[in-house]
């Protein structure tokens, strides 16, 4: 659905809600996809959201519920009857149910656990104990498992009988009697091959698996590298405990990218949506980094104070400080952004630090000389500075660009080596470091070439 049609649909739904034409609204909601209905809730107040949600069919309600934000889910849970809540949760896939429970307050979780079976309560509690960013917290138990002694015909019959409530049936998992993963078989093979063949004859014994405590970023990298649709999750004894699907990994990638952008902008990461955050929450996440950067900028003040006599001797030196610092900061940010993104995509590893340094060194020479030459011409023609002064600023520009690009390219790798997130070595941090180095270089070159 294109943006214009989406806006028209939203306006139509809002009009029906305001006019209280709930019969017409219910009929129209049946024809709308769940993800589009969920977007409509962004324009509804709390009371309207509950009304629209109650007009949805049982299947629709579960699908729409899985797309809503935490705040919207909480508002609906507080308003609907426990019976309807249980009906919705029964329709959710197990991993979506776990995600929902992780977001809800303790009293809601208790309500749901109270109405769950003993087996389901045990599973839910097990999943809730996995670390937040681990494979265990991300996986689902909604998969098809087969035995290698089955024939293709028996396997297809088993899938038809048990696959209705599974999140995916495109890849089936072959387990032994101890539930150890022995291989994979695709639905495509089962449908196309002779039904008399055994699963052991057609299953793939070479496969990629992950463990319950593996980090989500590493799992996302596996999906990208091997073009996976699903990934089996095993425990320490190599027993299959769940699978991770591509739709869940897309959510992880989105969250990780958002987190990296926030860190690169010198902010404390948060999963809360911008428009749902109040001013105090937004400020609280920004103040610590800004304070750190502000304090670190005192080094720059100290450097300027130390070379105050140089500035007093030639006042025009001060006019070039902003240009030098900005150019150096921008050059460093360019390099750090490329390296951080390359590391996030798995294109650059720790062992590549020499290659990165050499590449940035070559780039820095080309960029530095080009900008230094242009700056020299600019200062001689437009600023009408003396030859010595134009050379001083231009040479400083070349050196600071070279230095900034190599610092910007290698610091993210160093951060990774120290078990830190490379994203912290982006924009503001690199700029602060490079600014101080640029001033030191500038004043020392000026003192040497101008004899100050």
From TrEMBL:
Grouped into one coarse class, the protein's main location is membrane
* Keyword Nucleotide-binding tagged: no
Q: Name the membrane topology term.
A: Multi-pass membrane protein
Query: Which compartments is it annotated to reside in?
Result: Cell membrane; Membrane
What are the residue boundaries of the CBS domain, all occurrences included?
A: 203-259
Q: Membrane-spanning residues where?
A: 353-375, 381-402, 423-445
Q: Which UniProt keywords apply?
A: CBS domain, Cell membrane, Magnesium, Membrane, Metal-binding, Transmembrane, Transmembrane helix, Transport
One GO cellular-component annotation of the UniProt record comes to: plasma membrane
GO MF: magnesium ion transmembrane transporter activity; metal ion binding
Q: How does it assemble?
A: Homodimer.
Protein family membership: Belongs to the SLC41A transporter family.
Annotated function: Acts as a magnesium transporter.
Name this polypeptide is given: Magnesium transporter MgtE
